[in-house]
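Quick one: Diacylglycerol O-acyltransferase from Nocardioides cavernae, structure tokens please.
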Amino acid sequence: MSERLRPRDLAILAAESPTTPMHNATVEIFDPGESGFDHDRLVQLIADRIAFVPRYRQRLQLVPGRLANPAWVDDEGFDLGYHVRRSALPRPGSMEQLRELVARIASRPLDRSRPLWECYFVEGLEHGHVALLTKSHQILVDGRETVDIGQVLLDTSPDRSTLGHDDDWRPGRPAGPVAAALTAVTDSLESPRTLWMTTRANAESLGRAASASGARVAEVANALAGRGPVHSTPVHRRLSQQRRFVTVHTELSDYRAIREVHGGTVNDVILATIAGGLRGWLMARAESLGGLRTIKAIVPMSVIDDELEPTSLGSQITGHLVHLPIGEPSPVVRLHQVSYDLRAHRDNGRNVSARRLSGIAGFAPTTFHALGARLATAELRRGFHVSVTNVPGPQFPLYADGARMLESYPVHPLLPDHPLAIGVTSYDGGVFYGITTDRDAVPDADVLGQCLLEALDELKDSASDTRPRAPRGRKHAAAKEKT
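--- reply ---
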């Protein structure tokens, strides 16, 4: 029986459009040093490790007449040179130029007739650095059958170990249209689950088509009547086909210092920083929010729960709806409100510690970010404004063929009518924000990046030794009275 797409994967494919390409990306910056790491060495490295992610050599095969869901088949014309590409910035390339290149690459959909991934080796950065941009479709990385290729490319030592270069790999011969149809019928007869999945997928496809037709009719009617589309907030706008990408580099020690003074967790401090950044950005735009005091963020969390979809990473992913208090002027109060909102997740006994997540083999943040994006797509019905994925990584250096990785920024996809998504990765003493926005809806994305830094500075100032602080809680107040 063929390995067929599940209904959730089909829903992701159906949600994809020219304005909402459903792929995740990660941009990493390396210092080659004396390693000699270049494009050719990257091709060799991927050839050595691709056996650990076999789906990266497979493509989708559609079934005539929708007799069954599409299946994964080996790409008989697999060409590693097509997927691993070489690019360059005019020397010395700046971070601003790199971000612009990343935004343009992230704007382009993947070719569905080939394996759904691309990798770019970018030369010419200042200080002799190079960048690696990996881009994988959401249906390719499900955490169960396949992890992101970025998870298997990095080593803990500058010395590269050869793990499994399979020179003898030969693609299986895919079935033709007639054979694919016959196989689909056989699968449906032999497996009630396959028949149920096919029936469900076809019904959902008809429903989506009807919904899209209704939306187009309403759009035409509004246009004829002279009424434009209604968009209530700056974080809910119609998308274009182009993106902007902003990076923010901060230090993990700052978040830990704030946590030590005000309590909570590093994750609380990061979300409070995002809340403060969004507040400053919206105030800089001078836009009315219509009384909106909070922004609802869907925040994927790692839990241990047998009732959720299993993954190969040792935990499951669930979505927690966090109300970011953008209407609160005090950075400390914002932090306490965010911490209180997340306390229920921490107290249920299912949450997975950051230390355990950062200890997963390989560079797991790339896979967790992909799973977070999948979850946000599935949770659209909950009516959130922005998706925020924060993933802890290892606090020691990693290497790609001897080149040390310095920074890692997630590039999240945008969901329909959601012009903003934020990903955060902590690694080797740094906390790295990747902000993806729609190019037309959020032309001032760089202002949001600056506002994040200012929000963090506010929290750092509130935790400084020279700033007087009121005692927190009854016990602290009573102790002060006795003294």
